[in-house]
Amino acid sequence: AIRFDSGSVFNILTDFLQSLNAAAPARAAVATPVAAAPAAGGKTSDEDELEFQPGQRVLVLGPPAMAGKQGNVIGPALGDVFAVKFDSGSVFNFPAENLQDAASPAPPAPSPVAAPMAAAATSRQTSDGDELEFQEGQNVTIVAPPAMAGKRGVIMGPALGDAFAVRFESGSVFNIATGNIRA
Known about the structure:
Elements: E1 2-3, E2 9-10, H1 27-31, H2 45-49, E3 57-60, E4 70-76, E5 81-86, E6 91-95, E7 99-101, H3 114-122, E8 139-142, E9 152-158, E10 163-168, E11 173-177, E12 181-182
């Protein structure tokens, strides 16, 4: 397991690890973007395809648990998806429709699907009128799954199903089943 400066822990195959003291492999030079001369139309083919450029500051519009956060585009992922690195060091992939240039004036109004979800997240009661088991801002401890047992976080709001969005000290947000959370 590898623990990054951000606090995130990942299991990475040793084939993909390299000592900081070792020389970088030759293929690393291929991975770095190189500015190409514009084509006859004035844009390169990469510019035609990419809605967001590496290094560009963006505002996340969705999903609701991430809406409003800003980060920098690392580059494209599969399909119309972009990898975004947050100031905390966490990297997430977002569809292009969930991103907006941070320099743009204001995000568009929430879509009809996002509006009920946002309203549900701010509500203190379930649709049945029952009080929620946990409230937004409440400090909690995770009891399961084993890899997360003992971690402390803050309730961000209810998630889909019988779960709550929990933000950890690292800044990561996970949807955790209600039975795996203790006040």
